Amino acid sequence: MLRLFLLTTGTLVLASACQVPLSGSVEPGLDPLGRVQPAASASPQAEEALRAARAAHAAAPSEETAIWVGRRLGYLGRYREAVDWYGGALATWPESYRLLRHRGHRWITLRRFDRAEADLEAAWELARTQPDRDEPDGAPNAFGVPRSSDHGNILYHWALALYLQGRFDAAAEVWQQAVDRARNQDSEVSSRYWLAHAHRAAGRHDEARRVLAAVRPDWVLLENHTYHRLCLVMSGREDSAGLVRGDDESGVQEATVAYGLAAWRLHQGGDTQRARAALAYVAERGDWAAFGTIAASADLARLGYGTQEAGAER
Predict the structure, then answer these.
(1) Is residue 234 part of a domain?
(2) Taking all residues of the chain, what is their mean pLDDT, rounded to a whole number?
(3) Tens-digit pLDDT profile for residues 11-24
(4) pLDDT value of residue 15
(5) Domain check: are 102 and 156 in the same one?
(6) For labelling alongside 194, which of 67, 168, 184, 296 has CA 20 to 30 A away?
(7) Residues 6+ apart with CB under 8 A from 295
């Protein structure tokens, strides 16, 4: 578990996180901190789901069945295989903005933000004139109701690819489109959360406050509760201590919370040493595929910092 502690002043402290300068340039697409992707999952249930997806595609090949083979590969942590699979499927369905959307997501996971941007921008050019549709969930929420859509997911991931490259103005423009087109409050809150970070990173603090002010405590959410609470914390309407709960948080949620708080403090200006230490800890120890972990690593690279393991207490 990420050992995150909050002082009464709101200062972030992470046990034994160190910073060291990065030496030389960072090759695009490689983890700037040199962190190696963990071994792929071997979940029997996930393996069986992949076999079923392959069988369905073999029996009746379609864009939809091809997407599910790629998604199942991704759920197993086989991201490079997923990217290659989507590439093969795009040779058959070259106008599929849905295949491009999913490949773009996995390029982000693999830290190839330039390739993600290319895929997702191309996906939007193909999708923008088409009707928007709900996107089926790989891990449905407790209500079994999809909360994201083709258009929303393309815009959201495209903006993220821009943000991770430090192109905050462009990212904000795309996330604003995602906010404007949001079909429900789950989709809106996730885009508003990242939009606020993009504005803050670009120095537009008043715009960030405006974006967050629209998020109400009584919004009806089925899944994006962590983003909702982070928005309330960042706008000063909820105590950050309530976000750090412990073992009931998944690795992805932990990384989301830790990055959100660290980046928000970093962009406040002033003494950022502890915020950078927090980013370093998230980048080293967060769930490898979590957007919070990826963003922390990208932020540190832009700041000219890396990290090294330092035997943090557990």
Answers:
(1) no
(2) 85
(3) 444 333 333 232 22
(4) 35
(5) yes
(6) 67
(7) 163, 164, 259, 263
